[in-house]
Design a protein that fits this description.
Organism: Gemmatirosa kalamazoonensis
Largest sheet: 5 strands, mixed, barrel
Pfam families: PSP1
Number of helices: 10
Distance between the termini: 140 Å
Protein name: PSP1 domain protein
Helix content: 25-40%
Radius of gyration: 55 Å
Oligomer: single chain
Order of helices and strands: EEEEHEHEEHEHHHHHEEEEHH
Strand order of the largest sheet: 1-2-5-3-4
Strand content: 15-25%
Length: about 425
């Protein structure tokens, strides 16, 4: 039966292995595991449930192997280390420091801009790993050949960041304790300035930066607590209507559950969060009856139900009128039906009197009685018409060739008495 165990090595390097046996080894027990083309020595860091929990959540666990519950480490832990093997591993610490110093000398000889921070020998001395930091990309191919000839073994150069460097070298922070990354933090995540803003910390980089020169890792894993705690408080800068009137939220103390308020006149007061909530709730209850007394708007319950997504139908509009079609008005309502005299021809422009007709009669009437005459045989007196616009419609009898103007007879050269007249003169 195979057991999952986590083994720690020099520089807080950890990896997972499978242990074949009935019972897994105890914590901090030195074990010999499979290495790169050989064997390596480490100490047990986690077993059983703790190892399975870490395997699913750390970067060097299931995430490194592609994730999933079926992911299992390929390497195995071989045996528990003997006292002689542990003594050989202790001697490697002095050899690691010697290899780092020699590597620094070779880096300076090649003129490379890089900093060798740590060196680690494999337990069987078949591989030497050098960890370095650099701001830019470094071409170290010639350096690797030189180091391989110097140490007579396989050389591996790994470029790491400043956070990983602080994790490998470890140290004591400003809090007086070991670095979080070296002590217990399972994964190094990036930290930006917005995390410090959410916690209302000083934005001075020297006060919120760690030994590595970057923002402290503790800001990241404490950030979630601050976000959840501030959800219970009103936002800073918001104006609240309290028993003392309008007050502005100045600050929130999430550790003591207190809110600092400032009134319009500048008076400051500190109120517990529970008392502030109770005060706001009592004010809302007082205002609720007045709100209920106001008439409610008619609801749309009487309206027919519509399906979801269906558009509301517009009210039916009046039928459209075709403006291009001709409009026919009744004869009785037409104002043009009463106009039967050409004002331009029958009215004098200067005096306004009717011009005499060709036969000596006035007003354009025929001398002979027509169907419209009175019993005495005289034409009825017609009222004076106002001067209209020029170019109006002619009378019913005007415009005929040789006809009497305004007598209502067709203009065919025949007088009103029906006798044939003389033909019109021709030029």
């Amino acid at each position: 039966m195979s057991h999952l165990i986590e083994v720690a090595f020099k520089g807080n390097r950890k990896e997972f292995y499978l242990w074949d046996g009935d019972d897994p080894p105890h914590l901090k027990v030195p074990v010999i595991v499979e290495g790169d083309r050989g064997e390596d020595l480490g100490h047990v860091h986690a077993v059983e449930e703790a190892a399975a929990h870490r395997f699913a959540g750390v970067a060097h666990g299931a995430a490194l192997l592609g994730g999933g519950s079926a992911a299992q480490p390929a390497k195995r832990a071989l045996r528990v280390a003997t006292a002689d093997e542990v003594r050989r591993g202790a001697d490697l610490s002095e050899q690691n420091e010697s290899a780092r110093r020699k590597s620094i000398e070779r880096v300076k000889a090649h003129g490379l801009v890089m900093k060798v921070s740590d060196a680690e020998w494999q337990w069987d001395r078949r591989k030497l790993t050098l960890y370095f930091t650099a701001e830019k990309r470094v071409d170290f191919r010639n350096l690797v050949r030189d180091l391989a000839a110097l140490f007579r073994t396989r050389i591996e150069l790994k470029q790491i960041g400043v956070r990983d460097e602080a994790k490998r070298l470890s140290g004591v922070g400003r809090c007086g304790r070991e670095y979080c990354s070296a002590a217990w933090l399972p994964e190094l995540r990036p930290v930006n300035l917005s995390v410090a803003k959410d916690q209302h910390l000083s934005l001075n980089p020297t006060q919120i930066s760690g030994a590595c020169g970057r923002l402290m890792c503790s800001l990241r894993y404490e950030h979630e607590f601050y976000v959840q705690a501030r959800k219970r408080f009103p936002k800073e800068g918001k104006v609240l209507v309290t028993a003392k009137g309008e007050e502005k939220v100045v600050a929130n103390d999430i550790f003591r559950d207190r809110v600092t308020l400032r009134a319009l006149d500048g008076e400051m007061r500190v109120v517990p969060l529970a008392d502030l909530r109770q005060e706001l709730a009592s004010l809302s209850e007082r205002e609720s009856p007045a709100t209920e007394a106001t008439p409610e708007r008619p609801s749309d319950s009487a309206a027919p139900e519509r399906r979801r997504g269906e558009r509301r139908r517009a009210p039916e509009a009046a039928p459209l009128v075709d403006l291009a079609a001709p409009t026919v008005l009744p004869v009785e309502a037409s104002p043009v039906a009463e106009i039967d005299v050409d004002v331009e021809d029958d009215v004098d422009d200067e005096t306004g009197d009717a011009e005499p007709a060709a036969d000596g009669s006035e007003g354009g009437e025929s001398a002979e009685p027509t169907d419209g005459t009175t019993a005495e045989g005289t034409a009825p007196t017609r009222p004076r018409r106002r001067r209209g616009r020029r170019g109006g419609r002619r009378g019913r009898g005007g415009g005929g060739a040789g006809g009497a103007p305004g007598n209502g007879t067709p203009g065919n050269g025949t007088p009103a008495d029906g006798t044939p007249g003389e033909p019109p003169a021709t030029a």
